[in-house]
Write a structure and sequence with these properties.
Layout lengths: L12 E4 L9 H10 L5 E6 L11 H10 L5 E6 L4 H10 L3 E5 L6 H12 L3 E6 L6 H4 L7 E5 L15 H8 L7 E5 L7 H6 L4 E4 L1 H4 L6 H10 L3
Parallel strand pairs: 1-8, 2-3, 3-4, 4-5, 5-6, 6-7, 7-8
Helix pairs in contact: 2-3
Length: 229
């Protein structure tokens, strides 16, 4: 099983977001992006309440795990009650679960990280663009990964919000070497360099990868990782 936190390279990892994949050919699409150089799969879960959209549930994880037994599944819960979904997603094969600090501030965030660790998965905390960075700085030490949203969550294909890089820099300055800093939203060939320079070492990209023809996806992934064109 691939491990996000013991990866031999500290080059940025690229996480294709399956929200932008072809849902009628999900297994084939995901296999293709991994063969093209993707390091893990990012699974966006939305409840229609915390964000104004509904997406996938645990069964998507279950079938991805069956089709791709060695892939690292990075589940991002954009939901009002994340704890309710921990067990279903872990049982379905998630390797990592991220929840939002907006619904679990302070001691609650620490408690949820501890619960995820007790279930045998790594824990992440995410922050939305309007939320002050101070709300996550005080709890970041409990997480294995911190995710900075560079768009307002809810829909794919949005434009990158450059002001969010200030949060990324502030977090990069305090995170430990065994923690990861992830960014999600509007990341593509024109914004990836800014994200890398701000200290992120996991880049989530959806339409920038899946929006390309399959034969071009490897080139895009290489460009996101190191600027190669």
């Amino acid at each position: 099983m691939a491990n996000l936190f013991t990866h031999p390279s500290r080059l940025p990892l690229i996480a294709p977001s399956i929200l932008s994949a072809d849902f009628a050919n999900m297994g084939e699409d995901c296999t293709g992006v991994l063969e093209a150089g993707g390091d893990l799969l990012h699974v966006d879960v939305m409840d229609g309440h915390f964000v104004p959209n509904l997406t996938m549930g645990p069964d998507m994880c279950r079938w991805l795990r069956k089709a791709l037994p060695d892939v690292f599944l990075d589940v991002h819960l954009m939901v009002t009650d994340p704890e309710r979904y921990f067990e279903p997603f872990v049982e379905a094969g998630a390797d990592h679960v991220t929840f939002h600090v907006e619904v679990a501030p302070g001691d609650k965030a620490a408690s949820l990280c501890e619960k995820l660790h007790s279930m045998g998965v790594t824990a992440g905390i995410s922050i939305n663009p309007p939320t002050p960075v101070e709300q996550i700085l005080g709890v970041a030490q409990h997480a294995d990964l911190v995710l900075v949203m560079s768009v307002n969550p809810g829909f794919g294909g949005q434009a990158f919000i450059e002001d969010t890089l200030a949060k990324t820099r502030a977090l990069a300055a305090v995170l430990r070497a065994d923690q990861r800093l992830e960014m999600d939203g509007g990341i593509g060939p024109d914004t990836a360099e800014l994200v890398r320079e701000a200290g992120c070492d996991v880049l989530v990209a959806g339409s920038a990868i899946f929006g390309e023809m399959s034969e071009n996806r490897g080139r895009v992934i290489r460009g996101l990782r190191d600027g190669t064109r």
